[in-house]
Amino acid sequence: MTDWATVASLATAGGTFVLAVATFGATRTANRAARTAERAFEARLRPVLVPSRLEDPPEKIIWGDQHWTRLPGGRASVELGDGVVYLTMSLRNVGSGMAVILGWRAVPGFQALTEPELLEHPERVQPPDLDEFRPQGRDLYVPPGDSSFWQGAFRDRDERDVREGEEMAEAIRRREMITVYLLYGDHEGGQRVITRFLLVPPGDQAEDQNAWIENVNRHWNLDRDDPR
Known about the structure:
The chain is α+β, with helices and mostly antiparallel strands. Helices cover 29% and strands 35% of the residues. The chain is built from 4 helices and 11 strands, in the order αββββββααββαβββ. The chain has helices at 4-45, 111-114, 116-120, 159-173, and strands spanning 49-51, 59-62, 68-71, 75-80, 85-93, 99-108, 134-142, 147-154, 178-185, 193-200, 211-221. Strands 1, 4, 5, 6, 7, 8, 9, 10 and 11 form a 9-stranded antiparallel sheet that branches. 26% of the residues are buried.
């Protein structure tokens, strides 16, 4: 004889299980859709900095001590003042979001060319720690699809400034390459990136000896996975 109570219980349990599976599937689909929408939103805010084009207009930059620098498109400017080292770079944002420059680190030479292990395996080169970056003295923004600039200076303000400024000044006099790391992110404060630029002195025949050749060779993502 059929136990209808048992059948009803099994049917209810089966219906509940089917409903749970459907709910789980719908939740997964909704989560995937939300993650996709979030990634699309972040992509619209994401900045990527590279050197500007040679045909981009020059920038006229003023410093806090009233020093002026004329920065041509696609170039960096390296100048020695009275106890001050002035560094500027012409930049272009090839990303789709506003770039907000948060800090910088500049060192003489190029690490991957001075350490044999890194020369053989350049992919192992790591950027400086965040606490080594100098904060910007002024807010610097690079609009998407447009050009702007970065500026930084070594001044005799503390022991670190004196030491690093003297090392940089000596490297400039010897016409050595300079590595500049820029720390920047989107205007929401996220998607931070460290980009490494290499500044190369011009040849002896160059008309403007302060206008150095500028190139970019590495980006590191801090708040999301790297593509490599």
